[in-house]
Amino acid sequence: MPVTLLGLTFLIFFFTSFLSPYQLVSAYVTSPRELQAGNVDKIIEKYGLNQNFIFRYGRWIDGLVHGNFGWSLSLNEPVSKVLEQRFPATIELTIYAIIPVIFIGIWLGVVAASHHNGVIDQVLRVVALLGYSVPAFVLGLLLLFILYGVLGWLPPGRMDQWAQMIYYAKSFHHYTGIATLDALLNGRIWVFLDILKHLIDPVLTLSFLSIAGLLRITRSSMLESLGQDYIRTARAKGLSERVVVNKHAKRNALIPATTVAGLMFIGMLGGVIITETIFNYPGIGSFAAQAAEQFDYAGVLGVAVVFGIVTVIGNLIVDISYAIIDPRVRVG
Amino acid sequence: MLEWGDVNMERFIKIAKKIARNPTSLAGLLLVLFYVAIAIFAPFLAKPPYPDTPYQMPQSGWSAIPKPPSWQNPFGTTQGQYDLYYGIIWGTRTAFKVGIVVIGLALIIGLIVGTISAYFGGWVDEVLMRITDIFLAFPFLVGVIVIVAILGPGLNHVMWALVIFYWMTYARLIRGSVLEVKENQYVMAGRALGTPGYRIISRHILPNAIFPVIIQSSMDMATIPLMAAALSFLGLGAPVGYASWGQLVSFSRNWIVSSTGGNPFAYWYTIVFPSVAIVLYAMGWNLLGDALRDIFDPRMLI
């Protein structure tokens, strides 16, 4: 894992070597005052931006380790501060999105498999097909169109104006940075509900595709395990269909589904870029899109490092949980 | 043992017959053929006013406000008076261009890396797979955005970025498939006869290991152009006015979301036509991919 992390930072940094030193300056400075005219060449000199690749890489890693991610040109703030403020919002969104994915996805998969080729199965096939074929930006816009444009129910953004007044007031304590949790901890139930209301749209958009994916995986592994000999034995013993499905087939079918669910969580992290942009949700995904559009290299690099670290850790957790669920697998 | 010569016609007809027997598979095939026809006949379906720059959508006027469907603009015009019909027709070509170029290049890299990795094994395999892991340590879209940010926006840059962060899928798929095929007796027989390595790979291993890749690339013909469309939607893809479905959808955003006053359905055509084009396109390829999987890989009960 440390090798992957090092390789990852190396890879990101390698791409930046296509940029000129002048473009890279922003990834190093810590405040805009350093960027005054005539000073730029000094900064290039100071950080060795005209030096060789290995030297620059070492400098950059040194900065990352000390929490210096550079200056974000698009938001006029240090990147580390932006990430600190926005990362909890993204985590909040993905956690809310993964819960329905796991429960609904697996449940629908089991239902589809136990009604193999029946009406329910056919309907779910269409649902899965739609999940694969409707891209997030189309689904998100359609939801926004219907639920906000037509019905006026679910506005974009993080919370309403009045909730912001309370949320950003001095008396409001930001314990975790996760807005719904903070609102509850502060005893502000209406703020909590307002934030929740704003989360519905992005969560639907983000989870729909993954639900379809998990449905298909669960269904096929369920069908496979329903065809095993021990299922026939269980049926021959005279066990009820419910017990056969839930106790015998489902247990084994859930192993691949769990792995896929973990991978989906990682896949969702990529999806937040589009979802957050559609709904003006202030997480690191919308920041990444904005930074990329405005040539804010420091911002893009910072977000990429964070996403990379989360992905590597996520993969590790998937591997470990796989070994726990399935004793045949050993973590090597 | 299969060789490409024997495979071609006979096998192709067999596959086509199997697809035609299943209504959903047939629907997929027909949808894909429909879009292929649109892409091929684009110059006749929507005549470009300037033949040198056919991908540039013509503007009928300069007003920002979209106009509803009419004789002149069958699907209406979107923000900036770009003709929706023209954009969707030529956007089909853009989608195919992106899909074929990106998947083709990613496939070539994946074939080389995957085959070498599986055939030689040992430290070669170890090194190549570690490198693959590093590329896989990003969510796909994040990696792509880093590259696009560095190269600058534009369709060609988006295609490069997609290739750089997509070849790993094929490399892994081919590696696994080659590892399986490698154990067959006919490969050992080939070796025992002293057939050179490149010949064993090209004549005996690859033709038998390629089927999972065909299924995957059919699915990818849906996802990769959609990914490019998503980047256009974010303003990182094709330049303004370039015929691209993602851009048409992003144009509609300003016109369908204003909840205050007026009729919310007033500008429905700006979102409905491009969305339908995108969803049907993806659906066609996905159905075709499913059909191919049923035929080539009967183990998967999807």
Features:
heterodimer; A: 332 residues; mainly alpha; MetI-like fold; 2 domains; two-stranded antiparallel sheet; B: 302 residues; 2 strands; 1% strand; elongated
If you had to describe this structure to a student in words, what would you say it looks like?
The complex is a heterodimer of chains A (332) and B (302). Chain A is mainly alpha-helical. Chain A folds into two domains: 2-68, no CATH class; 80-329, MetI-like fold, CATH 1.10.3720. In chain A, 73% of the residues lie in helices and 1% in strands. Chain A has a two-stranded antiparallel sheet with strand order 1-2. In chain A, helix 6 crosses helix 10 and helix 7 (136-150) packs across helix 10 (189-226). Chain B has 302 residues and is mainly α. Chain B has helices at 4-21, 23-40, 42-45, 84-120, 122-136, 140-151, 155-164, 167-182, 185-192, 197-209, 211-233, 245-256, 268-296, and strands at 77-78, 82-83. In chain B, strand 1 and strand 2 form a beta hairpin. Chain B is elongated and about 75 Å long. The model of chain B has no long low-confidence stretch (mean pLDDT 84). At the A-B interface, helix 1, helix 6, helix 7, helix 10 and helix 12 of A face helix 5, helix 6, helix 11, helix 12 and helix 13 of B.
Count of separate DSSP helical elements of chain B:
13
- Structural class by sheet pairing and helices of chain A: mainly alpha
Query: If you compute it from the alpha carbons, what radius of gyration of chain B comes out, rounded to the nearest whole angstrom?
Result: 23 Å
Of all protein chain pairs, which has the greatest interface, and how many residues does each chain bring to it?
A-B, 62 and 51 residues
Would you report the number of β strands of chain B?
A: 2
Distance linking N and C termini of chain A: 12 Å
List low-pLDDT spans of chain A.
Answer: none
Mean pLDDT across the residues of chain B is 84
Strand content of chain B: under 5%
Largest sheet of chain A: 2 strands, antiparallel
